[in-house]
Amino acid sequence: MENESLNKNSQNNQPPEARTSHESRHTYEGTAKSRVDIEYEEKKGRRAFGYVWNVIWSLVFIIFFNFFSKYIAYFQYEKVEGLLKWNVYPIITSGFSKLIPLITAGLLVILIGNIILLIFDRYVLSRIVEILSSIFAVAVLANIILVFPFDFNVLPYDQLSEMLPLILKLLFGLIIFILVILIIANFVKIVIKITKR
After folding, report:
1. Are residues 163 and 127 in the same domain?
2. Do 136 and 189 reside in the same domain of the chain?
3. pTM score, two decimals?
4. What is d(CA 104, CA 65) in angstroms, rounded to the nearest whole number?
5. Which one, of 95, 133, 94, lies nearest residue 113 by Cα?
6. Is 104 in the same domain as 30?
7. Are residues 84 and 38 in the same domain?
8. What's the Cα-to-Cα distance from 52 to each of 40, 47, 64, 86, rounded to whole Å?
């Protein structure tokens, strides 16, 4: 009781300007914090849908790349004796098989990370999952550029088959650049969030 009365007296002894600035700063911090929390809570349903979507497409791609990657090909049909026959010309080379473990690992990180986020939807945790997913995506794309396991010579369009390797490498390079920026941005967000606590 004495401590409370002393605190009240000390607050009353402060100049009005000091009390007002202290109260307004406390109110502003509380408002800012609640605004961030409210915005995060408002988007909870949208994020949950995104997590489920990421889990589904990760599973689909894991199955596709591990068991059906031969269908990354150019398909052409022709009529033989009145019957329609499909010719399949694979675009990927044998070098693609070396990348499958890395691609699978990256997709598993996305899959497991989004399952965890469905259970524990936390701001910092979601940023960490995004950073890990982006790091694996950068690793996969960088290795694809280095190995470049594609052969576009099977395409019946000479100019397109010559241009596609350059176009893909530029596209992958641009995606890597964007992902690196995303990694840095998420890292900064985590630091800001932790320092504000």
Report:
1. yes
2. yes
3. 0.75
4. 8
5. 133
6. no
7. no
8. 18, 9, 18, 36
